[in-house]
Design a protein that fits this description.
Layout: H1 5-25, H2 34-43, H3 45-80, H4 82-94, H5 100-111, H6 115-139, H7 143-151, H8 156-193, H9 199-208, H10 212-240
Helix pairs in contact: 2-10, 3-4, 3-6, 3-8, 3-9, 5-6, 6-8, 7-8, 8-9, 8-10, 9-10
């Protein structure tokens, strides 16, 4: 707790100012207070947590899993062959120049309101940081260490497993810390643009009813979910990369 003491203090001040400002403006349909949002979450806990949250988490996890598999595979392919790197890397960069919000309605036309239209949006948002970070991690290995292993008769497979893979793990977890919040955002955006259930869809529906607290409620739940996932990744990173503290 001491490590996060300053962050906790700043957060308390921020929410206190927000609460006072919202009460002073007294227009809860525009700026609801934190206490009103918490109350709304409690009032709507059944549809939020039993219907809409599971739908959003399913999109998030599917998109993230596919992004991890695709991103790691592309990174390994680019690292193993320079021609593949020259062919794929520019395309990977170009995918991030296209506004996802413009593509999301097209995916709805192609796939309807099925889960895959939302999963594809999540993949497009998340696979880039995973690909680039893992690729940089694989390239970060010291050449003298590679040459040393080769003099001892190590194969390319041995060098990859014993040197390149461990070197890329910190980059991989850094990519996950970026991709997890983005996957939540991607799922919410796709639901906002076209869905029948999910926290993004619920927030959009409440906006049409001018219920400010109900609009903010799903956003707060998404933020807490992203924080929880990032905390889990931090714990896994500390458990798996034990050698980082020794270096």
């Amino acid at each position: 707790m001491k490590k996060y003491k300053s962050s906790i203090i700043v957060s308390i001040i921020f929410f206190a100012v927000w609460e006072l400002l919202a009460r002073y403006i007294n227009a809860m349909y525009i700026l609801p207070s934190p206490s009103r949002i918490v109350l709304k979450i409690w009032q709507l806990k059944e549809p939020l947590f039993l219907i809409h949250l599971p739908a959003t988490l399913l999109v998030t996890f599917l998109g993230l899993i596919i992004s991890v598999v695709l991103g790691v595979a592309l990174a390994i392919a680019m690292n193993s062959n320079e021609k593949i790197e020259k062919a794929i890397y520019p395309i990977v960069v170009v995918t991030q120049t296209v506004p996802i919000t413009a593509l999301a309605p097209i995916f709805v036309l192609w796939f309807g309101y099925s889960i895959w239209s939302k999963v594809i949006v999540t993949i497009l948002i998340t696979f880039f940081p995973i690909t680039v970070n893992v690729y940089d991690g694989l390239r970060s290995t010291r050449k003298d260490m590679e040459e040393l292993l080769m003099t001892y008769g190590a194969s390319k497979k041995d060098i990859f497993i014993k040197l390149k893979l461990p070197s890329s793990l910190p980059y991989f977890f850094s990519a996950l810390k970026i991709a997890v919040p983005l996957s939540v955002i991607g799922a919410a955006i796709s639901e906002w643009l076209g869905a029948q259930k999910g926290l993004g869809y619920f927030s959009k529906r409440m906006m049409t009813q001018l219920d400010g607290a109900a609009v903010f409620a799903p956003i707060c739940i998404l933020s807490l979910a992203a924080l929880l996932f990032v905390s889990i990744i931090n714990i896994l990173e500390k458990k798996l990369i034990t050698w980082r503290n020794e270096s």
